[in-house]
Protein backbone atom coordinates (compact mmCIF):
# COMPACT_ATOMS: atom_id res chain seq x y z
CA UNK A 1 0.00 0.00 0.00
CA UNK A 2 1.46 3.38 -0.89
CA UNK A 3 1.40 6.22 1.57
CA UNK A 4 -1.06 8.10 -0.60
CA UNK A 5 -3.54 5.21 -0.33
CA UNK A 6 -3.83 5.72 3.39
CA UNK A 7 -3.29 9.46 3.43
CA UNK A 8 -5.44 10.57 0.55
CA UNK A 9 -4.38 13.43 -1.67
CA UNK A 10 -6.45 15.90 0.31
CA UNK A 11 -4.57 15.02 3.52
CA UNK A 12 -3.53 18.20 5.24
CA UNK A 13 -0.55 18.72 7.50
CA UNK A 14 -1.76 19.42 11.04
CA UNK A 15 1.51 19.67 12.94
CA UNK A 16 5.11 20.01 11.81
CA UNK A 17 8.32 19.45 13.73
CA UNK A 18 11.63 20.67 12.37
CA UNK A 19 15.03 19.87 13.85
CA UNK A 20 13.54 19.30 17.30
CA UNK A 21 16.13 18.60 19.97
CA UNK A 22 15.41 18.00 23.63
CA UNK A 23 17.85 18.20 26.51
CA UNK A 24 17.40 17.18 30.14
CA UNK A 25 20.18 19.22 31.71
CA UNK A 26 23.24 18.17 29.72
CA UNK A 27 21.74 14.90 28.55
CA UNK A 28 20.32 15.10 25.01
CA UNK A 29 17.23 12.91 24.67
CA UNK A 30 16.06 13.93 21.15
CA UNK A 31 18.54 14.56 18.32
CA UNK A 32 16.95 16.76 15.69
CA UNK A 33 13.63 15.26 14.62
CA UNK A 34 11.65 16.35 11.56
CA UNK A 35 8.07 15.14 11.24
CA UNK A 36 4.76 16.07 9.65
CA UNK A 37 1.59 14.90 11.37
CA UNK A 38 -1.43 14.81 9.09
CA UNK A 39 -4.96 15.88 9.94
CA UNK A 40 -7.26 13.03 11.01
CA UNK A 41 -4.57 10.40 11.01
CA UNK A 42 -3.61 8.09 13.84
CA UNK A 43 0.16 8.09 14.08
CA UNK A 44 1.88 5.65 16.43
CA UNK A 45 5.27 6.17 18.06
CA UNK A 46 7.12 2.93 18.75
CA UNK A 47 10.63 2.05 19.87
CA UNK A 48 12.59 0.61 22.78
CA UNK A 49 12.31 1.99 26.28
CA UNK A 50 14.12 5.30 26.70
CA UNK A 51 14.28 6.09 22.96
CA UNK A 52 12.43 9.38 23.47
CA UNK A 53 8.87 8.62 22.35
CA UNK A 54 7.22 10.27 25.37
CA UNK A 55 9.69 13.15 25.39
CA UNK A 56 8.91 13.96 21.75
CA UNK A 57 5.16 13.51 22.33
CA UNK A 58 5.30 15.98 25.22
CA UNK A 59 6.96 18.55 22.93
CA UNK A 60 3.78 18.63 20.86
CA UNK A 61 1.75 20.40 23.57
CA UNK A 62 4.64 21.85 25.55
CA UNK A 63 4.12 19.46 28.41
CA UNK A 64 7.92 19.43 28.79
CA UNK A 65 7.66 23.04 30.00
CA UNK A 66 6.62 21.55 33.33
CA UNK A 67 10.01 19.81 33.71
CA UNK A 68 12.53 22.37 35.01
CA UNK A 69 15.66 20.82 33.52
CA UNK A 70 14.09 20.21 30.12
CA UNK A 71 15.01 22.42 27.14
CA UNK A 72 13.48 22.12 23.67
CA UNK A 73 14.99 23.65 20.51
CA UNK A 74 13.80 23.63 16.89
CA UNK A 75 10.36 24.47 15.52
CA UNK A 76 6.97 22.90 16.13
CA UNK A 77 3.86 24.31 14.49
CA UNK A 78 0.15 23.63 14.74
CA UNK A 79 -1.68 24.72 11.59
CA UNK A 80 1.42 26.69 10.69
CA UNK A 81 1.53 28.57 14.01
CA UNK A 82 4.71 28.28 16.10
CA UNK A 83 3.62 26.68 19.38
CA UNK A 84 6.80 27.84 21.12
CA UNK A 85 6.23 31.50 20.28
CA UNK A 86 6.62 33.60 23.45
CA UNK A 87 3.17 35.13 23.05
CA UNK A 88 1.42 31.79 22.75
CA UNK A 89 -1.14 30.93 25.46
CA UNK A 90 -0.01 27.51 26.70
CA UNK A 91 -3.30 26.76 28.45
CA UNK A 92 -5.11 27.33 25.16
CA UNK A 93 -2.55 25.19 23.32
CA UNK A 94 -3.15 22.29 25.70
CA UNK A 95 -6.86 22.53 24.98
CA UNK A 96 -6.14 22.38 21.23
CA UNK A 97 -3.59 19.61 21.69
CA UNK A 98 -5.02 17.52 24.52
CA UNK A 99 -3.31 14.69 26.31
CA UNK A 100 -4.31 11.33 27.76
CA UNK A 101 -1.81 9.72 30.10
CA UNK A 102 -0.68 6.19 30.79
CA UNK A 103 -2.50 5.92 34.09
CA UNK A 104 -6.07 7.20 34.13
CA UNK A 105 -6.01 10.36 36.25
CA UNK A 106 -9.54 11.62 36.84
CA UNK A 107 -9.88 14.66 39.09
CA UNK A 108 -11.19 13.87 42.59
CA UNK A 109 -14.56 15.22 41.51
CA UNK A 110 -17.84 13.87 40.20
CA UNK A 111 -18.05 12.33 36.74
CA UNK A 112 -19.99 15.42 35.62
CA UNK A 113 -17.45 17.86 37.04
CA UNK A 114 -14.53 15.97 35.50
CA UNK A 115 -15.96 16.82 32.10
CA UNK A 116 -17.40 20.24 32.95
CA UNK A 117 -14.16 21.58 34.43
CA UNK A 118 -12.38 22.33 31.12
CA UNK A 119 -15.31 23.93 29.29
CA UNK A 120 -15.93 26.16 32.35
CA UNK A 121 -12.25 27.13 32.52
CA UNK A 122 -12.17 28.01 28.84
CA UNK A 123 -15.57 29.76 28.88
CA UNK A 124 -16.98 27.30 26.33
CA UNK A 125 -20.37 26.90 28.01
CA UNK A 126 -22.04 29.76 29.82
CA UNK A 127 -25.44 28.27 30.68
CA UNK A 128 -26.02 25.13 32.73
CA UNK A 129 -27.94 23.59 29.83
CA UNK A 130 -24.98 24.21 27.50
CA UNK A 131 -22.68 22.56 30.01
CA UNK A 132 -25.05 19.60 30.30
CA UNK A 133 -24.91 19.23 26.52
CA UNK A 134 -21.10 19.30 26.44
CA UNK A 135 -20.92 16.73 29.25
CA UNK A 136 -23.34 14.40 27.48
CA UNK A 137 -21.80 14.74 24.02
CA UNK A 138 -18.26 14.29 25.34
CA UNK A 139 -19.24 11.18 27.28
CA UNK A 140 -21.08 9.83 24.25
CA UNK A 141 -18.09 10.40 21.97
CA UNK A 142 -15.88 8.63 24.48
CA UNK A 143 -18.32 5.70 24.51
CA UNK A 144 -19.08 6.10 28.22
CA UNK A 145 -22.48 7.83 28.37
CA UNK A 146 -24.67 4.72 28.64
CA UNK A 147 -22.55 3.38 31.51
CA UNK A 148 -22.56 6.56 33.59
CA UNK A 149 -25.64 8.59 32.66
CA UNK A 150 -27.45 7.58 35.86
CA UNK A 151 -24.57 8.39 38.18
CA UNK A 152 -23.06 11.60 36.92
CA UNK A 153 -22.77 12.93 40.47
CA UNK A 154 -20.69 10.03 41.70
CA UNK A 155 -16.89 10.32 41.90
CA UNK A 156 -14.92 9.68 38.69
CA UNK A 157 -12.42 7.75 40.76
CA UNK A 158 -15.11 5.14 41.52
CA UNK A 159 -15.17 3.91 37.91
CA UNK A 160 -13.20 0.92 36.62
CA UNK A 161 -9.77 1.58 35.10
CA UNK A 162 -11.06 1.35 31.54
CA UNK A 163 -14.02 3.60 32.35
CA UNK A 164 -11.68 6.09 34.04
CA UNK A 165 -9.52 6.19 30.92
CA UNK A 166 -12.60 6.85 28.77
CA UNK A 167 -13.58 9.55 31.27
CA UNK A 168 -10.15 11.13 30.73
CA UNK A 169 -10.66 10.92 26.97
CA UNK A 170 -14.10 12.54 27.37
CA UNK A 171 -12.51 15.27 29.51
CA UNK A 172 -9.99 15.92 26.74
CA UNK A 173 -12.70 15.99 24.06
CA UNK A 174 -14.86 18.40 26.09
CA UNK A 175 -12.60 21.37 25.27
CA UNK A 176 -12.78 20.69 21.51
CA UNK A 177 -9.19 19.71 20.82
CA UNK A 178 -7.82 19.27 17.32
CA UNK A 179 -5.07 16.85 18.26
CA UNK A 180 -5.15 14.22 21.02
CA UNK A 181 -1.84 12.91 22.36
CA UNK A 182 -2.04 9.51 24.03
CA UNK A 183 0.92 8.27 26.04
CA UNK A 184 0.47 4.49 26.35
CA UNK A 185 -3.22 4.94 27.13
CA UNK A 186 -3.90 1.22 27.52
CA UNK A 187 -0.88 0.06 29.47
CA UNK A 188 -2.78 0.05 32.77
CA UNK A 189 -5.88 -1.62 31.29
CA UNK A 190 -7.03 -5.22 30.84
CA UNK A 191 -7.49 -6.66 27.33
CA UNK A 192 -11.24 -5.92 27.16
CA UNK A 193 -10.84 -2.31 28.27
CA UNK A 194 -7.92 -2.03 25.83
CA UNK A 195 -9.98 -3.20 22.88
CA UNK A 196 -12.76 -0.74 23.78
CA UNK A 197 -10.21 2.11 23.74
CA UNK A 198 -8.76 0.87 20.44
CA UNK A 199 -12.22 0.88 18.86
CA UNK A 200 -12.77 4.33 20.24
CA UNK A 201 -9.53 5.58 18.67
CA UNK A 202 -10.80 4.42 15.27
CA UNK A 203 -13.98 6.48 15.78
CA UNK A 204 -12.22 9.54 17.19
CA UNK A 205 -10.00 9.69 14.14
CA UNK A 206 -12.92 11.03 12.14
CA UNK A 207 -12.82 14.25 14.15
CA UNK A 208 -9.37 14.45 15.65
CA UNK A 209 -5.74 13.86 14.83
CA UNK A 210 -4.33 11.25 17.20
CA UNK A 211 -0.73 10.64 18.21
CA UNK A 212 -0.26 7.52 20.30
CA UNK A 213 2.83 6.20 22.05
CA UNK A 214 2.65 2.47 22.52
CA UNK A 215 4.94 -0.32 23.64
CA UNK A 216 2.62 -2.78 22.05
CA UNK A 217 3.46 -3.30 18.39
CA UNK A 218 0.23 -5.22 17.74
CA UNK A 219 -1.63 -2.20 19.05
CA UNK A 220 0.30 0.14 16.76
CA UNK A 221 -0.50 -2.19 13.85
CA UNK A 222 -4.21 -2.30 14.78
CA UNK A 223 -4.91 1.37 15.43
CA UNK A 224 -2.53 3.52 13.42
CA UNK A 225 -2.35 4.74 9.83
CA UNK A 226 1.33 5.55 10.07
CA UNK A 227 4.03 4.44 12.45
CA UNK A 228 7.18 6.25 13.55
CA UNK A 229 10.04 4.15 14.89
CA UNK A 230 12.36 5.91 17.34
CA UNK A 231 15.77 4.73 18.48
CA UNK A 232 18.20 6.50 20.84
CA UNK A 233 16.44 9.83 20.39
CA UNK A 234 16.34 9.65 16.59
CA UNK A 235 13.44 9.11 14.24
CA UNK A 236 14.65 6.11 12.25
CA UNK A 237 11.65 5.45 10.06
CA UNK A 238 8.18 6.88 9.48
CA UNK A 239 5.78 5.30 7.05
CA UNK A 240 2.44 3.66 6.44
CA UNK A 241 1.97 1.23 9.33
CA UNK A 242 1.56 -1.82 7.15
CA UNK A 243 4.81 -1.02 5.31
CA UNK A 244 6.77 -0.37 8.49
CA UNK A 245 5.70 -3.73 9.92
CA UNK A 246 5.93 -5.85 6.80
CA UNK A 247 8.63 -4.16 4.76
CA UNK A 248 10.70 -1.74 6.86
CA UNK A 249 13.31 0.25 5.02
CA UNK A 250 15.75 0.43 7.90
CA UNK A 251 17.62 -2.47 9.50
CA UNK A 252 17.13 -1.05 13.00
CA UNK A 253 13.37 -1.01 12.47
CA UNK A 254 13.43 -4.58 11.24
CA UNK A 255 15.55 -5.70 14.20
CA UNK A 256 13.10 -4.08 16.60
CA UNK A 257 9.90 -5.37 15.07
CA UNK A 258 11.30 -8.88 14.74
CA UNK A 259 12.17 -8.80 18.43
CA UNK A 260 15.96 -8.70 18.12
CA UNK A 261 16.09 -5.98 20.76
CA UNK A 262 13.89 -3.74 22.85
N1 LIG B 1 12.00 14.06 33.54
C1 LIG B 1 13.16 13.62 33.05
N2 LIG B 1 14.33 14.02 33.57
C2 LIG B 1 15.51 13.60 33.08
N3 LIG B 1 15.63 12.73 32.05
C3 LIG B 1 14.49 12.28 31.50
C4 LIG B 1 13.21 12.68 31.97
N4 LIG B 1 12.26 12.07 31.21
C5 LIG B 1 12.92 11.30 30.33
N5 LIG B 1 14.25 11.42 30.50
C6 LIG B 1 15.29 10.73 29.71
O1 LIG B 1 15.08 10.98 28.33
C7 LIG B 1 15.29 9.80 27.58
C8 LIG B 1 14.03 9.47 26.80
O2 LIG B 1 13.02 9.10 27.72
P1 LIG B 1 11.49 8.91 27.30
O3 LIG B 1 10.70 8.67 28.55
O4 LIG B 1 11.08 10.02 26.43
O5 LIG B 1 11.59 7.59 26.43
P2 LIG B 1 10.43 6.59 26.00
O6 LIG B 1 10.82 6.08 24.66
O7 LIG B 1 9.10 7.24 26.12
O8 LIG B 1 10.61 5.45 27.08
P3 LIG B 1 9.53 4.46 27.71
O9 LIG B 1 9.06 3.63 26.56
O10 LIG B 1 10.33 3.66 28.70
O11 LIG B 1 8.46 5.28 28.33
C9 LIG B 1 15.71 8.72 28.56
O12 LIG B 1 17.11 8.68 28.58
C10 LIG B 1 15.18 9.23 29.88
O13 LIG B 1 15.96 8.78 30.94
TrEMBL record:
Q: Name one Pfam family in it.
A: ABC_tran
> Carries keyword Membrane?
no
Protein name (record): Phosphate import ATP-binding protein PstB
The alphabetical list of record keywords is: ATP-binding, Nucleotide-binding, Phosphate transport, Transport
Q: Which residues form the signal peptide?
A: none
Q: Which PANTHER family match?
A: ABC TRANSPORTER I FAMILY MEMBER 17
The residue ranges of the ABC transporter domain are: 15-257
Q: Which organism is it from?
A: Alishewanella longhuensis
**Which GO molecular function, any one, fits this protein according to its record?**
ATP binding
Q: Which InterPro entries match?
A: AAA+_ATPase, ABC_transporter-like_ATP-bd, ABC_transporter-like_CS, P-loop_NTPase, PstB-like
Q: Does the keyword field hold Metal-binding? A: no
Amino acid sequence: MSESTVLNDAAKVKMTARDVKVFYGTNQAIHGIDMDIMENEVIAFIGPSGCGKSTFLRCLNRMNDTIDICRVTGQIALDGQDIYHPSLDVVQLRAQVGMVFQKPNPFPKSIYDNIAYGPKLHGLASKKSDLDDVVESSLRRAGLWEEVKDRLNQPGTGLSGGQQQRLCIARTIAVSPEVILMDEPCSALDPIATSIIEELIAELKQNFTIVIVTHNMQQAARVSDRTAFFHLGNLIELGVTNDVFTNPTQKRTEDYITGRYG
